[in-house]
Amino acid sequence: MQAFGLASRFGKRTWSADLGGADRGMSARTLAELQAGSRGRITGYDLAPHLKQRLMELGLTKGTECRVLRFAPMGDPIEILVREYHLSLRKSEAQGILIQELA
Question: Per residue in 39-65, pLDDT tens?
Fold first, then answer.
């Protein structure tokens, strides 16, 4: 799990990213680890709160199914299909979305 720093006027504070109740064990994968054409269901997040909120507003909520469509030539960004629309994500954002791979 990554720790992110937040600066405040009282000094530097750190906090741990919220896993959203998902277990980051051996079976948990990230969206960035899926191959093109693979499907998965979102189980949690390992992101800073502001990024988690932004992605949830875009429809990437827990339990939502998504499919990786393709990767840009250099691997970043990643195009996914979620809730019947195409969405491009940075690879760093996709690495913070925990998924359960579907057959």
Answer: 999 999 999 999 999 999 999 999 999
CA diameter of the chain: 49
User: What is the set of domains in the chain, with CATH numbers?
Assistant: 17-102 (2.30.30.90)
Statement: the pTM of the whole predicted model exceeds 0.85: no
Exposed/middle/buried for residue 22 (C-beta within 10 Å: 0-12, 13-18, 19+): middle
Strands 29-30 and 85-89: unpaired
Q: How far is CA 55 from CA 6, 8, 10, 25, in A?
A: 20, 25, 30, 23
The number of angstroms, rounded, from the C-alpha of 30 to the middle of its chain's C-alpha atoms is: 7
β-pair partners for 85: 82
